[in-house]
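Exercise 7. Predict the structure of Sugar transferase from Aurantibacter aestuarii.
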Amino acid sequence: MKNHHKILKELFDYALAISLLMGLFLPIILLIVLATIDTKRFGLFEQKRVGYKGKLFKIHKIRTMKRSDNRSTITLYKDKRITKFGLFLRNYKLDELPQIFNILKGDMSFVGPRPDVQGYADKLEGEDRIVLDVKPGITGPAQLYFKNESKILSNQINPELYNKTIIWPKKVSINKAYIKNYTLLADFKYIYKTIFGLYE
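Solution. The predicted structure, encoded as tokens:
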């Protein structure tokens, strides 16, 4: 991605984040309060993710899972700790709203590769590391393409292997194409598709 594209993208991100926050600050606070009541834990949580240039940062999300000491209810891609309210938040991506603060902090963008936990993007080699040359996004082409990722993985005999050998390489390919062919218009398109549920 060219430097002037990065500057335009960053200016767009900050302008949109400030505009959205003026209208969404109170709803975000309300969702955090409701999530706190629902999960019986503080409704906002942080998790370390791999970001720009491989640097770790803390992503902010609204909590969607309750605590459970019963490990038999927990699997990698199908977690029974997710509450009904939490599932609602996830289905409509409302649990991602606090990431507007990540954008204002400079950790994220509205559109880009989804920030993963350690062991994926930070392990990329060669040309694939171009994925780390942009800030991770709340939405993006790979997220839209694999909108039903959890459902796909839950139907696999070995979901972890399927993710590593099928889904992850495809995500890298999609994100590389996004970065190499970047335009601000493309970002508008992905945001529009995310808002209106139009998927790849």
